[in-house]
Structure of Branched-chain-amino-acid aminotransferase:
Amino acid sequence: MAIPESSVIWFDGALVPWHEARVHVLSHALHYGTGVLEGTRVFATADGPAVFRLPEHLARLDRSARMLRMELPYSAEELAAATVALVAANGHRECYLRHLAFLGYGSMGLDMRHSPTSVSIASWEWPAYLPEGRGLRLMTSSWRRTDPNSVPPAAKATGPYLNSALARREATDSGFDEALLLAPDGTVSECSSENVFTVRDGVLRTTPASAGALEGITQDTLLTLARDLGAEVRIEPLLRSDLYAADEVFISGTAAGVVPVGSLDNRELPSHEGELTKQLAQAYRAAVHGEDARYRHWLTPVHRSPAHSS
């Protein structure tokens, strides 16, 4: 999927033209995967564009960096202000945001201590990340998540995404939409970049971080919404057969949103969009667009410049 270009990117403290946001070919992160990232969304609301759960995304970026022993050269407040300024400068009503902190040019070899940390924020208008209008077709990947003691799953780091890329390529080459990855012990972990939920007998279940799944911010959002809807919620290990036997299965992520699953490994599910899935998708849409007052604290407004206010 080609990226629709925007005007500027925030790079190490300044807004620079899109094509001038460049790094050296000997940057440490390019060779060793020493980077951390966040994907965040901006949604249109009645009061203008707003970033959804920006403080939580920036807090996770900082946690991920600390796990890799990288020190961010900007505070959360500075990065929040830069994010809002970038969205305003690009004139977006809705967009996807990519925060990235990485070790740049300074030294080679596995020793991380002598490479400076760079930070960038990019925004672009990215429509649906996964197919819409039908139940998603999943396959269980032959690739598995790594042991949590090898790479910390709580760190949203660039290097481990090779595992996701290989799994996603395997799935799409086989005619599926997305890959389901298992943990080393055979329990369900997550999809290539989304958390997994099941519904059976009205109980909502999702996998824990101990299965190698990222603790998703959209996942947390949906757990909150489900509890507020009165649903029983459990975070517990799931077997692949639990998905086969579920009444409903859906996945969630910042890029994907809430996407119902129609089949797994060519096994059709009873409904590609069950009742609780529909309720949660509706509640999520209302929250991100500022239509439910209970969740407006999750929104960081973007005050657009006069040139983009029409």
